[in-house]
Structure prediction request, 174 residues.
Amino acid sequence: MIVFVVFCSFQQVNSQTDTIPGTPFTKMYLPVWEEAAAHCLAIAKAMPEASYSYKPTEVSKTFGEQMVHIAASTKLLTQRYVQGMEVKPNTPDATIMTKKEILALLHGSFNYTKRTVQTIKKERLDELCKMYHSGNMVSRAFALFYVQDHMANHRAKANLYLRMNSIEPPAYTW
Prediction:
């Protein structure tokens, strides 16, 4: 019984240290990411499911498509630029997804990036990567800002969709 208790205690301590980022940069960045992700989730939750198909113009994404794009691209950009993986876009079809499924996709994507921030090593963060659209060479640490900025861009659009539906968006706090 004592061995079991010691083992469980070790596992609990070991799992807690896995969640603490290992670099000064990631320790600084993690709360920024968590706040951005929480705000995006609050916006996604604020829109009624019936309005997930709303789009302000014919060429715009629907609200649901904005949310699915955020989720799919967050994971893709984290994999491609922060982790250096060779990945291709694979965006689910928002038109056949429920609000609950889209929220789960967002949660999973944001948690994927969070786990990456918690576990990535300094050596990897210091590596350079080439940004697909601009061709700029940036550090993988810097690429985390791109992941967040891309999410914020689409989150801001979704925020306007709420206003266009007479819904007061969640307050932006920092």
Q: What stands out?
A: Residues 3-17 have pLDDT under 50 and may be disordered. The radius of gyration is 18 Å. Helices lie at 2-18, 24-46, 63-82, 99-119, 122-126, 140-164. Residues 140-164 form the longest helix (25 residues).
